[in-house]
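S.,

Sequence below, as promised.
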Amino acid sequence: CSAPNTCNCAAGWSGATCVTPVCSPTCANGGTCSAPNTCTCTSSWTGSTCAAPVCSTLCSNGGTCSAPNTCTCVSGWSGLTCLTPVCSPVCANGGICSAPNTC
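The prediction came back faster than expected:
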């Protein structure tokens, strides 16, 4: 401390008694700074700053996890995990779409 009730904190710490960790950049999406530059993320997010979403089931066929448990599918695929092929036009006479644009 440099004076009564005045502490000079070491790098990575802040607060009146230097017990509050500092994260730079800050933790995102509800993550908490648990140690200097160390974020503890909620179960829906991961990464050094909790900016990467978590999908409990992997996105298939080139789909990407764009939000917690949300896949963004590439053209030709749909569904929660991008496992449903899309046919355009739709298969006629009871045909089943077995792959993108393949009845």
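The mean pLDDT is 94.

Coffee later?
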